[in-house]
Amino acid sequence: MKKILLFLDLDDTIFQTRRKNKDATIQATYPANIEKASYMSNSQSLMFELFYNHPDVMIIPVTARDIEQYKRTEISKKSLIAVTYFAGMIVHNNEIDLHWQKNIQDNYKKMQLDISTIFTDLQQELDPSIFKSHIVEDFYIVIKNKFNSSFEHNQQNEILKLLLLKKITDEYFIHHNNNNISIIPKFIDKKNAVKYLIEKYQPELTIGMGDSFTDINFMNLCDFKIIPTQSQINKLFETYID
Fold it and tell me: Which residues does residue 62 pair with via DSSP β-bridges, in sequence order?
């Protein structure tokens, strides 16, 4: 195992859609609908190559993407280990980490309110003309607002989050990023997967790179953090810095 592990969030950290960054021109994902592809900017590409080309560094993607979405990224071809589904699954050389899988399955069995019950209940309340929802491989629920960012759109999302708080127990948390609102069991946390991998491989140095509030916990386990300037985390920092 390499001496240095870089735990790398993907979307909005090392690549994003052209809508979010028009200067990003290096294709990084290959979805069925090319209009939904994500791209790296030149600086993001240089950042990735800086670590990828270092002989002592292993890059471990830590992503909310499901396994099929992850396989459609350019980075998946260059990474031996990956954390997917927010931490619901760890893959090593395309093989599922069975020890981690059992840990996740055992945690689901202990839950008082299961994912499918919440999902079924929500279908009675969500307006299908505004929201579409699905369960991601039985790991968590994603609800997407069909409309682009606007005052009305933001109001809809805030009202939805209030509704969700009434539907879930303290076994879950709500993650809101851009158009997506997710209901996730608390044990599905990137922090837990990163802790597991650090203990397993015992690197000499760890680096965490991410953009979202859900990345902060896993980044705090690392020796150093890297945060993109245009990120959810940095925007929070800016509110406290003159």
Answer: 83
Residues 6+ apart with CB under 8 A from 88: 104, 137, 139, 140, 188
How many residues in the chain? Answer: 242
Q: What are phi and psi of 110, to 5 degrees?
A: -85, -10
| 39-58 per-position pLDDT tens digit | 999 999 999 999 999 999 99
Structural domains in the chain, CATH included, are 4-88+188-240 (3.40.50.1000), 111-185 (3.30.1360)
48: helix, coil or strand?
helix
Residue 157 CB burial class (10 angstroms; 0-12, 13-18, ≥19): buried
Instruction: Kindly compute the dihedral angle of the four CA atoms of residues 148, 149, 155, 161, in this order, to the nearest 10 degrees.
Output: 80
Provide the percentage of residues in the chain whose pLDDT is more than 70.
98
60 three-class SS: strand
- The pLDDT, as a whole number, for residue 230 is 81
Q: Average pLDDT, whole number, for the chain?
A: 92
Burial class (CB in 10 A: 0-12, 13-18, 19+), 237: exposed
C-beta separation of 8 from 61 below 8 A = yes
How wide is the angle at C-alpha 106 spanned by C-alphas 102 and 112, nearest 5°?
155
